[in-house]
Each structure stands twice: as C-alpha cells, then as structure tokens.
Amino acid sequence: MSRKIEMTGKQYGRLTVIRQKGQDAKNADLLWECQCSCGNVVVVDGSRYVVATFEVVAA
Known about the structure:
This protein is 17% helix and 39% strand. By secondary structure, the protein is an alpha+beta fold. A hairpin with a 2-residue loop joins strand 1 (11-12) and strand 2 (15-23). Mean pLDDT is 77; it is low at 51-59.
C-alpha cells in the first residue's frame, strides 16, 4: 500500500491543488481537484503529478 502525499496548496505549473477529490476506482490512485491559472477547475490523477505529465490537462 502506498503512502498518501499531501498535495493541497501546492502548485505545479499552472495548476494549484485545491483538495483531494476521492480515489480512481480503476487503480486506486488519489484524485485531486486543481485550479488552473486561467480559472478552470479540473480533477487530476495524483500519479500524474509524480511524472509531471498533467500540465496538458490545464490548457
């Protein structure tokens, strides 16, 4: 079982993590609600932060 990494308030590129939004039913990864600098709100799989491939989602 993996350890939860607290990401609330952290900024990754144009995304700022707002809060944990649940878990992905397929792979049990944590989901995080994030706000883009443009104002859009998206939910991102937490494992994407580790490999920094999420920035495409915000644009």
